[in-house]
Amino acid sequence: xxxxxxxxxxxxxxxxxxxxxxxxxxxxxxFVFLDNNLQKPNSPDLLEKGVDGAMWAIxxxxxxxxxxxxxxxxxIHTKLHWFYWESxxxxxxxxxxxxxxxxxxxxxxxxDKSLMDWSPAVAITAALSFFVVFWFVxxxxxxxxxxxxxxxxxxxTLMLCVVAFASWLACQLFAGRAAFLLVGAMIATAMSANVFxxxxxxxxxxxxxxxxxxxxxxxxxxxxxxxxxxRSVHNTYFTxxxxxxxLSNHYSFLYTHPQRxxxxxxxxxxxxxxxxxxxxxxxxxxxxxxxxWPFAAVGVVLIVAVIVAHSWQHSLRPKVPWPWHLGAQxxxxxxxxxxxxxxxxxxx
Length: 348
Known about the structure:
Layout (H helix, E strand, L loop, with lengths): L1 H36 L6 H6 L1 E4 L2 E3 L2 E3 L2 E3 L15 H19 L2 H5 L9 H26 L5 H23 L2 H35 L7 H31 L3 H4 L4 H26 L7 H24 L11 H4 L5 H10 L2
Antiparallel strand pairs: 1-4, 2-3
């Protein structure tokens, strides 16, 4: 009965998590598209209001004219909509699902005794530490280097090294399937923390200043918009790597590979490059950026290289016959459902 109820909890949490993730990723992609398509208005009335960028769009039979203000408008005439519950609900449902699947069943799904023979409590503590340590390392890198000359390039280079090390370490400590999911959840935690720690608090300070009725210093408040934009852009580059990590744990040929950490890292890096292509192409069409096709080309080449290398190595691996001669009654009771699945997959 307990297993039956856990399956239902798993299904419902996964359903909620996918729905909220779609909402969050959709709004994130839309606002990145919007930022990259806004153009400086020429209309005196818009400039007088403080509009820094605007665009026209048509969708669903109607015309839309979104406008962006640097710092804040002089007055908001209608209800102000906040974008944060998409992020929070995605993380909460995802962590709940991670708890039900991996932390609750740590002995089965989190621990691989051939790698680390530790207790469930220690393994759970180590897994959760990935979330905390990654956030503090990432946040420190952004604060120290983010707004320097070539700061974003420095941040990107350092974070590639951090993610590569985290991928390697997770695959040394945890079962392959759990390691893949853990790395994805680690990055997703930093994405949600960006919203919770920096983006929303900064926006609240700007709104509080503009609605206080007192004169405020727009220059001192501009840092909140600058930092919020920085972390929002980082989140959009994290998105495709996280999606790959979340989906790949359903495919045993990936997380059982001897070099699984390298496969995970290269595929996530390819996802980030492909996302860069989609981000930059908006600016390219407006003449504000170079043609982004090299990013997509390198990303596709990396994916093809992983597929070819994996296929070549798999073809060289000797086939291990199923031990039917031992008798099903002697073999099956000794094997967990997960190990049975992995053995069958490896012989396909």
